[in-house]
Amino acid sequence: MELDNIEKLLEKYFEATTTVAEERTLQAYFSQKEVASHLEQYKSMFNYFSMAKEERYTKQVPLKPRRNYYKWLSVAAVVVLTFGIYFGNEYQERKQAEYAYNETKKAFELLAENFGKGTEKVAYLQEFEVAKQKIYNND
């Protein structure tokens, strides 16, 4: 192989403009035993690249276990349900208290109405009492 051609390919390689076929040519040249003395420094680099291609990682990669979102989803559902029951009961109690207040109010109005009728009768009774006193005192 022509030394001038290899030097041009090396220049292109360091400028990152080589094709895959040109890189294979460089790899083949530097894998030989005989390399030009001024290019000897690149031999170890290309040999490393060829060995690195062959390396494989054999250890098992521990994968993160899949998070169980159902647990958190059930916790959230329980929280929502608890708040719903609490505030639902509070609303129900408020409605019952309002109903009891309205019924008590009606009962007091009825009592007041009947009490008013009773006081009217007492007023007549007092007039009767005054008239009776006048009659008994005149004697």
What does this structure look like?
The protein has helices at residues 3-14, 20-30, 40-54, 69-138. It has 139 residues and is an all-alpha fold. The protein starts with a helix and ends with a helix.
At a glance:
The protein is built from four helices and no strands. Helix 1 (3-14) crosses helix 2 (20-30).
Structure characteristics:
single chain, 139 residues, mainly alpha
Mean pLDDT: 80
Task: Give helix and strand order, one letter per element, not per position.
Answer: HHHH
Find the structural class using helix and strand composition: mainly alpha
Number of helices: 4
- The shape is rod-shaped
Our estimate of the beta-strand percent is: under 5%
Over all CA atoms, what is the radius of gyration?
A: 54 Å
List segments where confidence is low: pLDDT < 50 over at least 5 consecutive residues: none
Distance between the termini: 164 Å
